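Re: your question from the hallway

Yes, I did run it. Sequences:
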Amino acid sequence: MSLILGIMASSRLVATTAYESIATTTVGSGGVSSVTFSSIPSTYAHLQIRATVRGGFAGSLEQTKMRFNSNVISYSSHWLEGNGSAASAGNSWVDNEVFLRYSPGNGSTASVFGVYIMDILDYANTSKNKVTRTLMGFDANGSGYISLCSGHWNNTAAISSISLVPKDGSSWAQYSSFALYGIKGA
Amino acid sequence: MAATYEPIATQTLGSNTASVTFSSITGSYTDLILVSSISTTHTATTSLVIQFNGDTATNYSNTRLLGDGSSASSDRDTNVVSPRIALVGFSSSEFNPVITHFNNYSNATTYKTILSRGNNASAFVTAYSALWRSTSAINEIKVFTLAGNLRTGSTFTLYGIAAA
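Structure:
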């Protein structure tokens, strides 16, 4: 009885899920040059990043460079995307970072932000190279992209930090937000 | 760490229904995720579409990536009254899983970008980005199809995720 009353009295149910918020960064006035999640605990099975982004770059498109543990070698990326008129695929080999495809730049329609949702499975496993998958995109009423991206870090180290840097410009715009979540295993 | 990813509401259709609406959505989460299993009563494939807060004006648009088993393509809709978020089939036994993300849905500063992935194992796979050109917080989500009704047995569950 007391448990039932406790739940009914609460304005919000107590979550018992395996999905936990680890850290969030929301960009303030003036923008920031990069976002880094550091000291990531290794106690989860998987990570997810959910981001809402706009580049400070003057052009209409911005990409994201992602690095793990400040390492600058042994990355590669593949993507499949649509730009509203055609589908295409591409890759980037032997790079200094994983590439995530297009979000709006500052030259895009005002108030439009891109979104990406990235999964990093077995991020703390020291026997596997690390692979990411990302659903990302934006629409600006006449322009926009929708992309499926995979990234590879040819390294078996546990991921303890993740840096997200704009590729084409020098900053993330105000109101961009980056949230890191951990998903527990059994 | 704060546990999150909470179910907000679920609707399971006991009969063929024109639309499903989640209303009075709390603004206390960071993102919403709508997990749907859908079929329609239409006699051909049709598009699953969406509206927010009762806005029926041409304030929406979308960009699509489609694979149909033989080729990939992309197209878009601009200035529409309801953006597409999935292409869905009409089988009474094969329902289409669709997962739709509404990031920063309650912020009152930016337009709202939606990402959605739809699957129909018999015919196609789709991914969409969509835009609602409004800075209003989303407090109502209406889901329906461009043709036919949502078939009985379709399910819709809305989840909330709160960032730290």
